[in-house]
What does this fold into?
Amino acid sequence: MAAAERAAPGGAASPVALARAYLEPSAAAAGFDPVWFCILFLIVIQTSCLTPPMAPAIFYLRAVAPDSITIRHMYRGVVPFIALQLATLLVTMAWPSLVTWLPQQVLQLR
It folds into this structure.
């Protein structure tokens, strides 16, 4: 069985897993910490769930929200969260030790 068939049900690998598989070795070769790079990658993926054009989190909420709440209300409502996500991304980029310190401590205990 191929790795792609084991990765996800139905035989299709996640595009995120495929992108990570190609980007992580490139980042390591460029001298970036793999833990730091993966955290940045996850922050970007999480932010993409809130931003148009896809915004799956908004569409999930729209399915259960009352009719009085429009999609426009939801887009306006996620703006502060997107700003927080972007601030987190910038802080993580500026100070990598914030996300690499704990994994380094845990790995030294082993």
Notes: The CA atoms of residues 21 and 106 lie 24 Å apart. Confidence is low (pLDDT under 50) at residues 1-12.
